[in-house]
Prior knowledge:
The chain is built from one helix and six strands, in the order E-E-E-E-H-E-E. By secondary structure, it is mostly beta strands. The protein has a single domain, classed as CATH 2.40.50.140. A five-stranded mixed β-barrel has the order 1-3-4-6-5. The termini are far apart.
Amino acid sequence: MNQVVLVGRLCQDPEIINKEKENQSGIITLAVNRPFKNIDGIYETDFIRCILWNNIALNTFAYCHIGDVIGIKGRLQTKNHKDEKFSMEVIAEKVTFLSSKH
């Protein structure tokens, strides 16, 4: 099973990357705090790239801004690069708007 649930703050305003009518997509970067302290006693943060599609992308773009707390349910996807490196990103299947600073 490939399922991810995240809660975090938007690092920047959502970005629409494709405006085609049937395949609209966007990107957000979610700052998610780790639940434990590092060796220096500091909570570290992971910055997770999330891909949004169609209505999820449009609604997030319309209603969310930098600093807002959102929840995401989705799946991990591997993205292969030409130089034999790869990265992971989350494909959002559901976005929940939890709080807004505005």
